[in-house]
């Protein structure tokens, strides 16, 4: 909301306020990607500020607290309720507990003072729970050298304990520290799919996080697209949910699956290729496994039929190679792919009409329409997707850096590939802008009708010109039905080999209107394999797949990476695989293993050097102009 100033003194004090902010150190940005529904791990990373909290504790308390006490303090900040409970149980008597409370208040206030030193008082105030603003500020801005006041501060703390507020004060202060350790969060896509709780992630962010942005990932598109009425996005989403034993999530969003279940169990029998994957490695109960297996088959067949229809409707998608239902032999024992015949394993084509393979049966049609309407109508899903839409984009230019999930589609030479749709040609930045426009319009007006918009939204998931997918074709059919793993291979866009080259990074930054001397590109999407570096193009491109997806740990070996950008430069943070929240708390394992400084600037970056700084400077200019106008008027009147 715009502030209204009535007197010139008000304008002057605002100018003073804004000018002072320009000189504060730039706030810490954290970059996270590919969370894939792993709420507990993501929440852990938020709680520990991507390793930042631990570092601050060490800077502040080394020499005063032992390594073990520092660790305990860190875990109290991450998991205040649980650690409080543990601590209280271990205290021998009331007096020891009271002493612990006072010591802890002092440590937490010191941490809060340290983490908030970059911010204005008003910003810090907003991060404190209303009930505790007054008390916290009294302690936070206390002058500990003032002996006379020392007794007063002690009295405040003692009263907190006496009045039974100690626990809530500690919890609230820990949450404030969590909030302030990282100033702004960038989520570089793929919040959804594979893991169990993307819904908790969005809830958590909505409730507890202030400043953030999303760059949508290909998996997020399936969910946004489904809420926009795309049956193809929805079929993929349900198939993946069944594949990862995750249909419960849809029920949590209020989507009724009983008709689909009944239909699937009536028409399909469990097959090996459709065995669901367990997120935790634990055995999936037989009943669930059978349900997931049959639903996966039923919806996969509907997906392949819908795909065939969309591909035929849109020749510019150039996806005819993905139409494989009509390449099955009459006995369905072989399939022809790129002119070569392969045996079919675990075929389940009983509802595919050989004469019209892409035609849905009446029952399939009815199920799809009913489900799609449910996805459009589900209030919580709409609410979550609207949050991602309102705070998200296809790419983001932020403080001179370019953030995007997948790639910029290019040819072997690194030239931006162009794509013509409805007579208009797009490449590079304009391609991203085009997709964003279509997605926004589609989301604003959900529709059950298969139209160009919903086809393009689905294309974002799987098309070769999609910056979010970045591969030539998705081999889902082959992965289910063909044993020869060569057919499973998905060819990546040349972007992925070129991004090692500095000149290429420079070209991309220029394409998006950024300065190649100072800008960086931050990508998610591709897990960084053990032994490979996530830092490319002479430190201009960082790939920070968070590696949180548990089923992918065998590919990444380590958990993954996150990135921090503070007033001193960039730091890459390596994460060890996270097991469970319970285990993290019990063993006090921090997950962050190493931090590597990538870039360290000689001069500390201030708010004045950032995008926010630029807009503050503009405001100062406008206010100064108004002030001059007022002064002139007054002089004339005199
Ligand atoms: O391992 P899964 O879950 O079957 O998924 C494989 C599919 O996922 C994709 O890699 C897309 O997901 P990502 O964005 O996580 O890479 C497809 O290219 C591939 O066909
Ligand atoms: Mn992805």
Automatic annotation (TrEMBL):
A GO BP annotation: gluconeogenesis
E.C. designation(s): 3.1.3.11
Pathway stated in the Swiss-Prot or TrEMBL entry: Carbohydrate biosynthesis; gluconeogenesis
Keyword set, alphabetical order: Carbohydrate metabolism, Hydrolase, Manganese
GO molecular function, one term: fructose 1,6-bisphosphate 1-phosphatase activity
SUPFAM superfamilies, A to Z: Metallo-dependent phosphatases
Cofactors demanded by this protein: Mn(2+)
Superkingdom in the source lineage: Bacteria
Similarity comment: family membership: Belongs to the FBPase class 3 family.
HAMAP family linked: FBPase_class3 (MF_01854)
UniProt-recorded name of the protein: Fructose-1,6-bisphosphatase class 3
